[in-house]
Amino acid sequence: MMRTVEVVIVIVIITGAFIASSYYAVLPWPRQVSPMNLRRLSLTTMQMLDSNHDLSRAAFDTGNSVLWNNLQISLSASLPPNVIYNLTVYDVNSAPDGSTVYLPKTSISNAENLGVTSDASSDLVASSNVTFNVIPQKIGEHNGNGGITLYILNCSDANGWWITGYNAQSLAQDLYNLLSPYFVRTIMVQNTAQLEQILNGASLQGENVQNAVVINTCGEAVPIPSGYYASPGVGYDSSHLSYAPYAYTLGQRVLQYNWTWVSIVGWPLYYVSNTALFSSTQNSWGIYGMNMVASAGLNAFLQGIDNQTYSYGSSTTGSPGVVTLSNKASGSSNYYGIYPSPYQTSTRALSTSILSTYHLNVTTYVFDPVNNWIPGAIYRHSVTTNGVASYQGGFYALGLTRTPDIRLTALGLLSDFKPRIYSADYTSYDNSRLVVLHLGLVGGA
C-alpha cells in the first residue's frame, strides 16, 4: 500500500512540474518553427511567370504598361496574401575595365519596405534578339558524286499499316522537315507512277538517283506500281499467289542503285498497297487497297539485295520487349538535337541470322541488340570486287511496335551518315537582363 502511495505522489509531482514549466515557458511563433522559404518562393515564382516568356517580354519592354499591369496582376495572384514584394529589372552592361555593371530599368512593388524578414532570388532572362543559326553539312556532297538524294514515299494512291494515329502523308511531311536540311535534294514521291519512274532509274527533277536514301512512310505496307512491277515474274508469284517477287525486285534495285531503303516501323514489306490495283482487296483487317504478302516479303527483299535467286519462303521476327537506345544513337541525339524516348517496345526485331545469310554488316545499331534480335539498325550489304571489299546497297529497319516515331528514323540516318553541323551566324544585342524578386512578410519578424 505504501508503494502505491509513493508512486501516486511521484506522478503528481512530475505532472505539476510539467504544467508549471509549460505555463512560464516562452514558445516560438509558428513561423519561427517552420519559416517560409522566401528565397525558394521567389525563384519558383519567377520561373512560373516566365514559363510562357511573359517575364522576359516585359523585362525588355519596360515602357509597355499593359504588359507590366498584367505581370503585376499575375505576380500578386502567385504569392500568399501575407507576402509583399519588390521586383526590379536591371540592364546588364560591361564596363571599360571588363567588369559587369547592373543598371536598374524599372521596378514594381506592393509595399514601401519589406520589413525585417525578407529574402530574394534573381533570374537572368534572355532577349528574343539573340539568334544562333547553323548550316548542316549536306550528306555526300564532298564524295564527288553530287551529293545524296532523299526520296520520301508520299504516295497518294497507297495506304499504310501499323502507322496508327498517322497517315503516310503527315509522316512524309514531318520527315521532310527533319531531314531535308541534311540532303542536297529531298523529293516527295507523290504516287506509285513516280515510284515506278525512280525504280527504272529515271530522275523526277534532275536529281541523282544513284546512292539515294528511300524512306517508306507506309509502315508495314509498301506502295507497288501497277503494270510492269505487279506483273508475273517481276512483282507477282502465280504459283504462290503472292506479290513477294515485288519485294525481291525492290531488293534488286537497292543493290543496283546502292540505295538505303528505310522501313520506319514494324515488319518490313508485310503488305503491298495500291488503291487502284487492289480496290476490292483488303489486308484481312478491313483496309482496302492492300494485299498481304506476309513474311515472304522480307525474305524476298533480302534475297534481292544479296543477288540470290528468288525462292518463295518465310522470314521471322522477334519480340524482345523494351529496348534501349544505343550509345551511338544517344550521342547523336545530343549533337543533332533530336530527342526520342530512349526506351521503346520492339515486337518486330530482325534476327541476327540475316547477317551471315545475306552478307550484311550492321554499320549503326540504333537500339542495343537483345540476345539474337536486332530491334533497330542500319545494315549494309557487303560485296567484293577484284579483291576489294565495299558496301553496295543497304536498309534501315526499325522493328518497333506501332505507332511510329519518325524522330528515330531521322536519328538513325544521321547517326550513320554523320553529317557535321557548322555554326553560321550569331547575333546578340541587348541580350540579357537581370530580374530580382525581393519578398518579405507582412509584420516583419
Task: State the gist of this model.
The protein has twelve helices and 21 strands. By secondary structure, it is of the alpha/beta class.
What proportion strand?
25-35%
* Tally of separate domains: 2
- How far apart the termini lie comes to 55 Å
The total beta strand count reads 21
Q: Percentage of helical residues?
A: 25-40%
Specify the number of helices: 12
Please provide a written account of the structure:
It is a single chain. By secondary structure, this protein is α/β, with parallel strands linked by helices. It contains 12 helices and 21 strands. It is 29% helix and 28% strand. The mean pLDDT is 89. The protein is elongated, with a radius of gyration of 34 Å. Strands 6-5-7-9-19-18-16 form a 7-stranded mixed β-sheet. A 4-stranded antiparallel β-sheet has the order 2-1-21-3. The protein has a 3-stranded mixed β-sheet with strand order 8-10-11, with no helix packed on it. The chain folds into 2 domains: 10-130 and 429-441, Ribosomal protein S3 C-terminal domain (2-Layer Sandwich); 134-424, no CATH class.
Which key terms come to mind for this protein?
12 helices, four-stranded antiparallel β-sheet, Ribosomal protein S3 C-terminal domain, 21 strands, alpha/beta, seven-stranded mixed β-sheet, 29% helix, 445 residues, elongated, 2 domains
Helix-strand layout with pairing:
Elements: H1 2-24, H2 30-33, H3 38-49, H4 54-59, H5 65-78, E1 83-94, E2 100-109, E3 118-126, E4 131-136, E5 149-153, H6 168-179, E6 185-189, H7 192-199, E7 213-216, E8 221-223, H8 244-257, E9 260-263, E10 271-273, E11 290-292, H9 296-305, E12 317-318, E13 321-324, H10 327-336, E14 343-346, E15 349-351, H11 353-357, E16 360-365, E17 373-374, E18 376-385, E19 388-398, H12 406-417, E20 421-427, E21 432-441
Parallel strand pairs: 5-6, 5-7, 7-9, 8-10, 9-19
Antiparallel strand pairs: 1-2, 1-21, 3-21, 4-20, 10-11, 12-15, 13-14, 15-17, 16-18, 18-19
